[in-house]
Amino acid sequence: MSGFFKPGMVVVCSFIGLLLPISPASAGPQVSFSVSPDTIDRTIAVGDETRETVTLHNLSTVEIVVKAHFSPRDSEEAPGISLEPDQISLKSGESAPVIIRVAIPDNAQPGRQLSSVSFEAASSTGRDVAIVGQVGVALDTQIIRPVADVNWSFPRIIDSTDQAVIGMEGRNAGNFTTRLEGKAKITGIFGDDISLIAVSAPVKVGESVFLQAVWDETPTFSMKRATLDLSSGIGAPVEKKATLMIFPWKLSLMLILIAAVAVAGARYQPIIANVFSSNGRRAG
Q: What is the fold, at CATH topology level, of the domain defined by 147-248?
């Protein structure tokens, strides 16, 4: 039998073996997954947030581990992004939801913001530890400030014998008709805190409105801190802070004038008396 296998035949058999396809059993697992939806387009007011749900689908024949990644905020005004959860295991054919939270800070500038979240998958068998797939979700966020062109009018020094009128003017810069609400929260070390509220009628998009909040019973003497807000009910309000001094300044001014006249009269009284006295002697 040993004479049957010639040396040349061995070489030919080895060459043929190199041309045979690799069997499926010897190939690595095919990892594939997807995410839906792959685009999120939202309009969000400053100070507000949105929670969007996307679904990860494991389309492969093995269990995978998916990790989420997103770019860090490049400034305090940029939207904040977080995920729940940021890592998840999916068995073959399994799907699972992931919540993407997009929060807009109070000081964000209106306009369009583009960002993204990527999901990277690796096999959880321990044999394939490298990243084997990546999908992403594009976030297209239109940031709006629902109330714009805000102007405040109020006295910094308030006469305690009069009403204090706080004026608030603003424009509906949102995308639907709404009521504008003005609030004045007045606080201090002494005395009770005061909250004044003024609400408008429905204001159409692009229209402006003027509101007045009236403080009837002001303290006689006080120094207060006022926080003024104007909002449309969504997002962060437009805010202003101010210090208010309260005392009966009109009465004080009148007393000062009376005192000044009295001092002036006392100062010139000897001169007047001397003039009359001299004239009297001449007449005698």
A: Immunoglobulin-like (2.60.40)
